[in-house]
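From the pipeline queue, job 12 of 40. The input is one protein chain; the requested action is below.

Action: predict structure.
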Amino acid sequence: MHELTELIRQDMKPALGVTEPGAIAFAVACARRHTSGAIRRITLRLNSGMFKNAFTCGIPGSSEVGNAHAAALGAVGADPDKGLECLDGITPEQARQAREMVAAGMVRVEMAGISSRIFIEATVTAKEQEASVTIRDTHTNIVRITENGRTVFEKPVPEDVPNGDGAVPLIHRYTLAQLRDYALTVPAGEIAFIRRAFEMNLALCKAGLDSPKTTYARYLLAENGGRLISRDEQATASLLCNGAIEARVLGLPQPAMSITGSGAHGIIATMPLYAACQVQGYPEEKLLRAAALSYLVCMYIKEYSGKLSAFCGCAIAAGTGMACGLVLLRDGDADAMARTICNMASSITGMICDGGNQGCTMKGVVAVDAAYRSVSMAMQGIAIDPIHGINGPTPEQTMRNMGLIASPGMTGTEKTMIDILEHKQKGN
């Protein structure tokens, strides 16, 4: 198996609801497993990206939103063996217990610092024991477990950045042209597993259309002539993509297939491509190849920006990946993809991430629109010249610059957004 295939396979994971509440619930559930007796208190320490992303997003199995409720559900009903799908099967009684815990002030949420690097420290204090679980860098990567202050599990963690040894990430060892060549030549059977992403994300979109909670999904359906698949490729792409995103951020109990730790990234990276194939009749093999390229370009940018940053990686990183996938579907060459990246970099880079919430749907709408316009222009040789703005002399440099805008570039923006959210939380 090609190393890029393995990279995609390891990164592509189902996630129920927004990934951050799932990760919080997972951490608390793991800590709870190391305690006994009635729960007295839950203390949660989060990096700014985690705090922000789970701040007002819907939670599967609950009518509530936010960090504290995700933590409480993790304590009373989550199954840590299910990873990011740990909230699957939450009962109304468990949801009631979680609400009562939050109302009683039993859950405390603290900020551990402004950072795009994932950090969760969940401490459960029970009648008999206290246990703490620490997660770093990826949403389910447990690096430390303590019981009553005694470490019972620990593994090494780089001190400063995920690649603290200075090694170049695997994805950055490739050029855009090489990623395209891989996508075009990898045996189709080797990437057939990507099919699961289309199946899962389409089911999520359909659930959103059936739910009374959603609003954007039904608007986009009407805009598409009341049909899930119409002859309008872009309208179909926006519906399938953003109907699924809205369902996810509102907490509907169906999983999304995530990439780079995010369901919305996974949806944007795949569903417009699926829509294009449904409308235009491209063969499934071509769709799988386009999706593989989309994933890899998304990963390339995210390695620079960090997992949870101040910019909307869903629109910017996954949207750019999806745009490159559209170029592949239209038989564009590497130069057309480079032009597409310049167009995307010069248009939507800098779009903020103000957490996982219904606003992600609108950001997805903008991403689809930007991708379609960027690709159409690039295929006609029209692109922002590399001398302008953050564009670089190569597509690799442009993608690097896109990521750097988020981290370290938008650290101050992240702090401002956190200040706004905290003021909202206090009712100001």
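Job complete. The beta strands are 13-16, 39-47, 107-113, 119-126, 130-136, 142-147, 150-154, 255-258.
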